[in-house]
């Protein structure tokens, strides 16, 4: 799980939520899936928090920093 991208983690989390919402998962599997989902959720939240801090820092600096792939005008 540590080497997965944000998008992969979100996809795994969506799969887990779908499985749990169906309600046809045995209790032990549901508990394991829930636990894995909580870990994935925390990883995703941490990634978003880091991205937000980085963007806030970039935006608060005096000089303008173009995003990758953005052409200068």
Structural commentary:
Belongs to the XseB family. Its main location: cytoplasm. Bidirectionally degrades single-stranded DNA into large acid-insoluble oligonucleotides, which are then degraded further into small acid-soluble oligonucleotides. With about 70 residues, the chain is mainly α. The model has no long low-confidence stretch (mean pLDDT about 85). It is about 70% helix and about 0% strand. The protein is built from two helices and no strands. The chain starts with 5 loop residues before the first helix and ends in a 13-residue tail after the last helix. The protein is elongated and about 55 Å long. It has helices spanning about 5-20, 25-60.
Give the terminus-to-terminus CA distance: 40 Å
Evaluate the radius of gyration.
18 Å
Low-confidence stretches: none
Work out the number of β strands. 0
User: Which strand-content bin applies to the residues?
Assistant: under 5%
Helix content: 55-70%
**How would you describe the shape?**
elongated
Q: Which sequence of SSEs, written as H and E, runs from N to C? A: HH
Which structural category fits the helices and strands? mainly alpha
**Main beta sheet strand tally, sense and closure:** none
Mean pLDDT: 87
Count up the helices.
2
């Amino acid at each position: 799980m540590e080497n997965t991208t944000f998008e992969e983690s979100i996809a795994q989390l969506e799969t887990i939520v779908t499985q749990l919402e169906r309600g046809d998962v045995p209790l032990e599997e549901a508990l394991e899936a829930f636990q894995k989902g909580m870990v994935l959720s925390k990883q995703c939240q941490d990634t978003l928090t880091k991205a937000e801090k980085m963007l806030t820092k970039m935006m608060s600096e005096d000089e303008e920093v173009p995003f990758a792939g953005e052409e200068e005008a």
